[in-house]
TrEMBL record:
GO terms for molecular function: serine-type endopeptidase activity. Residues 1-21 form the signal peptide. SUPFAM superfamilies: Trypsin-like serine proteases. This is Granzyme B. Pfam families: Trypsin. Residues 24-254 form the Peptidase S1 domain. The keyword Hydrolase applies. One of its GO terms (biological process) is proteolysis. PANTHER family: GRANZYME B, KALLIKREIN-RELATED. The lineage of its organism: Eukaryota, Metazoa, Chordata, Craniata, Vertebrata. It comes from the Eukaryota.
Amino acid sequence: MQLLILVLLPAAFLLPPRAQAGEIIGGWEARPHSRPYMAYVKIATRRGRKTCGGFLIRDDVVLTAAHCNDEQGHITVSLGVHDLRLREWSQQEIPVLRRIPHPEYDMHSLNNDIMLLQLVHRARLNECVGLISLPSAWQGVCPGAMCSVAGWGRTSARRAKGSHVLREVDMPVLEDYVCLKDPDQIYHYYNASTMLCAGDPKQAKDSFKGDSGGPLVCSKIAQGIVSWGSLNGTPPGVYTRISRFVPWILETMRMLQP
């Protein structure tokens, strides 16, 4: 069985052996602007356009997945968005000035799958655009904790396009062994020190293509970043473990002048 990286790509784009995460499966439409930290990330490439999720951690910095990057692509971030079909009064569309993927990101194993996007200018914070807190450095989230994930990705493996509206779903954090024990070696590259395993395998609730880069939120704290999962959207999914990277995030942001 292969894994899926959750970026929403043009149909002609070839996926790597593992799939990247995308749309929310088994979830529901989020209450509009109830997650003011959510960012819709658009990457214009030579092959067309791909999209990811992200989240605002400083008024000029969005956190997302490193696999969403395209060295030649122009990146724009939309904040205050709920329905992508509408030009909402709350929407702020801001180009990206700098992209800073983790220096040890491995595109083969998807280890260290984390990237900072510095915006051209600061976002206007209000009831529809806001920040989300990060965990303390090395502060883990306990297995069994109920968390949530949101995105505009695909809602099933049968759908070719993502959702027009932001969708969300609740899911538990699992023990690392649930991902490590996979008999088909789907999770061969799972690294417990930098990744989180989440999503009850008995329930059809997961992130999927197009949700990459969005936050796994536990008790109002961003603990994970949607990274990769199975090609058919079957849980569990794999998330970048944010607490492991907090020192790098803070040090990098200190060097980014607003």
